[in-house]
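Section 3.1: Structural characterization of target chains.
Under the original work plan, the team committed to producing a structural model for every single-chain target entering the pipeline before any wet-lab resources were allocated. The record below documents one such target. The sequence was received from the expression subgroup and is listed exactly as submitted; it comprises 133 residues.
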Amino acid sequence: MLFLLFSRPHLIPFIAFATLETMHISDKKFDDHSLDTKSNAYKHALWNILIAYHIQLFYRTPQKALNRTKRITDMHEECFKNKPEAEAMDLANNEIGRNIYLKAYEEFNRKPKKKILLQHLSAEQDSFIYLED
């Protein structure tokens, strides 16, 4: 993971900010922060949305920002191992978040406002994958 971050050191503050923002937003939305729950699924989707949102500045297309986001979040999953079903859940929710970002980007043909992304995320909550209620 360090190699991935150090190969693009200019992204580190943006990834860190996206991470802190994800924690802040999800803490306000959910009381329970257990693993494998809907709140964790939301957090994974939101984290991917916010990383893509913040690093889009450095990429010409949303797909390039999303490819980098995928590399970052996949590396996180590799470094912090879960049970196989929990890892599959996390990866699926990460993908949901990236798809939400791309859909919103294509809808406006430019980087969407954060408020719009959060609305799209709320609308997609039924598609989250989680193991416990």
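The longest helix spans residues 84-108.
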